[in-house]
Amino acid sequence: MHTAILATALTGFAVVNAAGPIVEGYTGRLGDAAIVQDNPVGVTYTATLPDSPTTGVRGYVAGTSNANGTGVNFNVNLFGFPDASLGPFLYHIHDQPVPANGNCTATRAHQDSYIRGEAPPCDRTQPQTCQDGDLAGKHGNITTSPFQTAFLDLYLSTAQGPGSFFGNRSIVIHTSNTTRLTCANFTLTSGNNTSSNTTSPSGNSTVTGSNPVSSPFTGGAAVTCVGSGAIIAGLAAFLL
User: Fold this and answer.
1) pTM recorded for the entire structure
2) Pairwise CA distance, residues 14 & 72, whole Å
3) In a 3-state reduction of DSSP, which class is residue 113?
């Protein structure tokens, strides 16, 4: 009986944590993402994938400030993907940079300054409700190899300060089941990342709405994982 109760609890936990279907209008705890304006002109951050012995995936993801300062123009050029049965492949901006040892797991979760979470999945028709760093969710998965695309993302920043700034973060490439294949840090490859707004000495981009201030990752994703495991372990200890 206890085993049956535990199995039911675990099943419920899995359902809660599954991505599930798209929920129209679902957004972050801090609301919809704000459109970023007044990005510094001519600034480009590029993440170039390393020569890894564990995968053949190579290429780069580059983000350049839009000419009018609103949003960021991305140029994506990737190739060398494994068997298509592992796709469609996903790519996201992750919260933390890749450490010196190249461990992609250390990049933690997606850039998510509005505290939306990954579930339910992003609705491409309402990109303001998605995680800032969910590039695949907002602009489409990787479905070909080689893969090339370009798009304007209105909710990311090339100026330090707001939570929408991606220049100190990383890009991670995943299989369809979210296994991490490879990753790379964004680095400044062109321009000066201070704001073009001369009235804002802080160098922060202007946003239409409230944009959270960028702050170091405090381990929230890891805490959530540990907390969930502790709950299950406690329940198992009580029932068995």
Assistant:
1) 0.77
2) 36
3) coil
Q: Among residues 160, 112, 125, which one has the least CA distance to residue 25?
A: 125
pLDDT single digits (tens) 109-129? 999 999 999 999 999 999 999
Structure tokens at 21: 């279907």
Q: Which residues of 40-54 are buried (b: 16+ CB within 10 A; e: fewer)?
A: bbebbbbbbbeebee
Q: How far apart are CA 85 and CA 127, in angstroms?
A: 27
Query: Distance between CA 222 and CA 240 in Å, rounded?
Result: 27
Helix axes 2-17, 220-239, angle to 10 degrees: 160
pLDDT at 61 over 60: yes
Query: CB-based contacts of 131: which residues, under 8 Å, 6+ apart?
Result: 28, 92, 110, 111, 112, 114, 116, 117, 118, 122, 137
CB 115 within 8 A of CB 30: yes
Helix (H) or strand (E) holding 45: strand 44-48
Of the candidates 3, 23, 9, 44, the residue with the CA atom closest to the CA atom of residue 192: 44
- Number of DSSP helices (H) and strands (E) in the chain, helices first: 3, 9
pLDDT, one tens digit per residue, over 148-158 is 999 999 999 99
**pLDDT single digits (tens) 174-214:** 999 999 999 999 999 999 876 543 322 223 344 444 455 44
Tokens of 149: 């695309």
